[in-house]
Predict the structure of Histidine--tRNA ligase.
Amino acid sequence: MGYETHRSGTGARDTGMNDMADIKKTNALKARLPRGLVDRHAGTIKATEAMVAKIKEVYELYGFEPVETPLIEYTDALGKFLPDQDRPNEGVFSFQDDDEQWLSLRYDLTAPLARIVAENFDALPKPYRSYRAGWVFRNEKPGPGRFRQFMQFDADTIGAASPAADAEMCMMMADTLEALGLERGQYVIRVNNRKVLDGVMEAIGLAGDENAGRRLTVLRAIDKLDKFGPEGVRLLLGAGRKDESGDFTKGAGLDEAAIDKVVSRLTAEAGASADATGIEAEGLRELSEIQSLISAAGYGPDRIKIDPSVVRGLEYYTGPVFEAELLFETVNDKGEPARFGSIGGGGRYDGLVGRFRSESVPGTGFSIGVSRLMAALTALGKISTMPEPGPVVVTVFDRDRMGDYQRMVKQIRDAGIRAELYLGGSGPKAQLKYADKRNSPCVIIQGGDELAKGVVQIKDLALGKQMSTEITDNAAWREGRPAQQEVAEADMVEAVRRIVEGGTA
C-alpha cells in the first residue's frame, strides 16, 4: 500500500526517494538578500579596514580617541533629530522591548554620542574629542547608491563653543582626504553657517514651527545650486521647475522679493554682510573667523572654502555646517560623465547634548560616508577591492598521512606565511581547482613517490596562469610542467617564501 502511494502521475514506478527530494526542494527556503542591503566579501572588507586605519591615524594625530556605542538606542534618544520627519519612528527601524519601551537601530552616530556624553558628563574631559566608526540604518526606500545599512566614520568635539573647533574639523577633513591619496583639486571642503540660512528665513517670513515644511523646501532648492545654477534655484524657490524629461518639481512658492533675497545671499562673496542683522550677521562673523583660522594654518580656498549654498538636512545643526565634495569626474554605469559629489559632512549642534541636561552643551562634528568614499578611491585607483593572495594550500594525496600534512602546514605558518590544509573530500585535480578559487599563491604536493624521495612538489599557481597564456602546444605543456618545482622537504618553507614574496621556487 505504501508503495502505491509513491507512483508517478504517468503510472511509472517510483522508489519514493525522488518524491521526497522534490518535496524537500519545494519546501526549501529561498535564499534572498533584503532590499537595500549588500553582502561584503574579502576584498571589500580588507580595503575598508585599510582605509579606516588611515582615517584613524589622522584623527588620532589631532588628539581624538575612539569610543563605541551600541547599534540600538531608545527611540526617544533620537527624537525629532531624524531627517526632517514629524513622526519619531519615521526613517528608523524600531521595535518594542518586553517592558514596552521603544527601541531603534541607530540612524547616525551623533545622537548616540550625545547620549553617552550626557550620561557620563562629569567623568569626561571637556572638550571631549572622540571618533567612532560603525554601521547606521535607514528605514527608507532603497535605490541606486541608497542603502538601508551603511558605514559612517565620525569625529566630534563636545564642549567647545569657539568657531576654532569648527575650523579644526574642516582642516582635519582636508588632511584625511589627502592621507587617503586625494590630491589638491580633486576635493574641496565647503563651509556655510545655518545661522546665515536661519537669518534669511526670518527675513523672508519663514521663521517659526508653522513654516517648517516650506523652510525645508527652500533649503532643498538652495542645495541644488551646483546642479541647476542660480536660475534653476529661482524656479525651485518660486512656482517650480520642469526638467528635460518633463517631470515637474513643485517649488516653495516664494514671491519675487523673497527669491531675490535668497539668491543674493547664495551668490554673495564670502563674508559679505552689508545688510545682514541679528542671527544672520552673527553667522557671517563666525564664517569670517573660520576663514581667518584656516588661512592662518595654511589651508587655501583650493582645500577649504566658504560657500553660501551648503545646506545640511538634519534639523539639529545650529551653526557652521560643512561638506566634503569630490571634484573629479568619473563614468557612471551608463558610460556617462558623473561626479561622486559629497562623501561626508557635518556641523555644529549646540542643542543635541542639552536635550538630556538642563544646560546647553556645544558640539561640532564630521561624518564620512565610508562606502561612498571607498567607491571614489577605487575609481581613482587609490584603493583596490580585488581579493588579496589567499593561503598556501597543502594538498592531501594520502588520507592516512594527515598528520604529516598537518606538520607541513604548521611549518609554513610558523614562518609567518598564511597556509591551510585541504579538508575536503575531493581528489587531486579538484584540490588544485580549490586552491585556484582560493587565489592561493602556490600548493604543496606530496604523494608516495615524493615521500620516498624526501621531497615535495610546489606548484606556483600565479606563474602557471601566466605561462598558460604563453604555451600553446599541449606536448610542450606536459613536458615542461610549467611553474612546478621539486624541492627537498627541508627547503620547502624557503621555497614557499620566495613564491609568496614574488620570486620563484
In short: The mean pLDDT is 85. The longest strand covers residues 320-331.
